[in-house]
Amino acid sequence: MRQAILSDIHSNLEALQACVAHAREQGATHFACLGDCVGYGADPVPTLDLLRSLPHLLMIRGNHDAALFLDEVIDVPGIREALDWTCTQLAPVHCDLLENAPLVRTLDEATYAHASAHEPEAWDYLRRPEQIRDCLAATAARVTFIGHVHVPMVFYVTAGDTLREYSPESGVPIPLSPLCRYVINVGSVGQPRDGNNAAAYAVYDTDAAEVTIYRVAYDYVSAAEKILNAGLSTRFAERLLEGR
Amino acid sequence: MATARGKRAVRVPGAIRPGVTLGRYRVGKLLHEGGMARLYAVEDRAALILKVPKLGVDHPASSLVAFENELRILERLRGPHVPRLVASGDLRARPYLIMERIEGEALAQAAQRAPVELDGLRDLGVRLCRAVQALHHQNVIHLDLKPSNVRNRAGGEMVLIDFGMAHHAQLPDLHDAAFGEEEGTTPYIAPEQLHHVRSDSRSDIYAIGAILYQLATGHYPFGRPNLLSLAKRLAMPPLPPRCHRPELPAWLQEIILRCLETRPERRFATAKEIAHLLAHPEAVHVGARGHRTRPPGWWQRLRGWQRSVFQKFDEQPAPRPYERLTTSPHVLVALDLGHCSEALGEALRRAVRRLARSEPHSYFTCLSVLPPQDRAQPGKTTAPDVVRQAVMRNWAQPLKLASPRLVFQVLPGDPARAIVDYARQHQVDLIVVGAYASSALRQHLGSVSAAVAAHAPCSVTVVRTRRDIRK
Predict the structure, then answer these.
(1) ipTM of the shown complex
(2) Which residues, 6 or more positions from A203, have their beta carbon under 8 angstroms from its beta carbon?
(3) Closest CA to B196 of B179, B220, B208, B210
(4) pTM of the complete model
(5) Which of A157, A192, B256, B344 is most buried (CB neighbours < 10 A)?
């Protein structure tokens, strides 16, 4: 089975369309979305409709999806307004999709979470070794897929219990060793932040035990224009161009 | 390390006995037992060999890591300089791999009977360097080069085997210093490997130097393999080869000692540079290093030890092996000066000068091809290839390139084919060729640049003058 793992789409329809088309070309038959479907972008409804149409979709709830239905203040300027605006756009069917998604899910050999499998609602940004180890300790699965940081990265614990990280290259398959355990950040579809403005997602090939991170160029100008036209923060549009 | 205890065959899950079938293959007799794995013949398939990692309580736990590492890397390697992977078993259920069996042991035999004569050493060295270059070109660093890990095909190509220690720059590294693994083989290991650096392709250059040293002198660079010999390589250069054999040429010592520099950045950047210099000793710039015939003095040794205490081999984001290969490009300048206008000659010089300036580590071979009809010219006393050499040297004078960066070569045959063959054989990175546009000669020579561009194994720059464009 080949599963495309998408995360942090943030209502960026153009990026999602490009990634889904690319994933189908790679032979993906299953899809997973690791949360943060909304926020920042100007296309929440078409984004969620496209997601709902994907075969064998595994949904995970992210912090933006959760904040949609809460009144909490978020310290990113403009994001509360963006979420409130998003709320006015959504139909009940969209709200159900987001509200009913679990925070963590394990399927066969893989665990899926937005920020971490450990205390998922703390929404930690997993960068430090102890955070990665906590995440690994929270699940028995060999590989855990996460998003939230918006930077693709492979963390792994070797047979000798050393934690390492590896910055993946687009399109180069990473074999999953039976001797290692992995936390793989699949990057962000709709708001990449590693200086490369191409959308990022992963394909998990369960038969070959391989994960491949792909970077897909998409029409970010249209996505940025829509953000400006919707009256959302101009900073959200700028970030799409910079990939920061 | 753990081999002594693991010698007795302990019945462990996953062990394979002769007669068992693995997929389409039947296990033959045990051929070799190493520290990490056993090698078996494959029944009725003499050209194949089976490798099975040693597993279980009596064996180093790292043997499965090394095995998986080798399998992952062999799956990704191509070409004549590595054994072809034929089949493999599931890593979790029954790990094994079946690969091409390469018998030739020319290098190992030469190392045993070392010192070997100079021509033999140059030939072995060039072939070894080509194999290592081909490996680096595929983003893999071997990290355990030694004569017993180098085989050769009947056609002479060297084949590198045993990728258990190797590093692939596009794969997460499975090796683990904390795991107590061996880090290569004592006489050949590079200083930075002792500091657990696994991502520097120049570690293989060090091993090439150690192998050449052994071939040239019959000794290991730092004496018998023990802890002292490991510590020494962090502190000082080895005893100059000419201390063992004073008759060795200075250029060879220069090459060997440059490979064996403690700091990776002071070694050759690529294996193909070493191959080039072994083939063209006249291009070696021999410094004090090459002329030394005495061991370093006590003051120098003291300084070396002192420095080694503070030595750091920071694992900076080292360029991937493939990227490093392009920092010292080998440029082939195809010259046909007999049929070349003054303006085109000048344009070619300008192109070469630009390259030499922008790539300070580049080096150049000027090649002139003698078509068969030009070879025999009755009435001329000087051999035509000597004349060609002289003309090329004359052309190159204004470039003022120091001789180590520039060598001259005259080859017989069809021009385009000779140029392409030379480029393929010598792993040339760029060909610079003139477009000879004079109408009378076009049908014979004008097609050379087009044919070279069509068939070259690398990039080709075709140099043309404005006047020639206008005709």
Answers:
(1) 0.85
(2) A2, A3, A4, A5, A23, A26, A28, A211, A212, A214
(3) B179
(4) 0.81
(5) B256
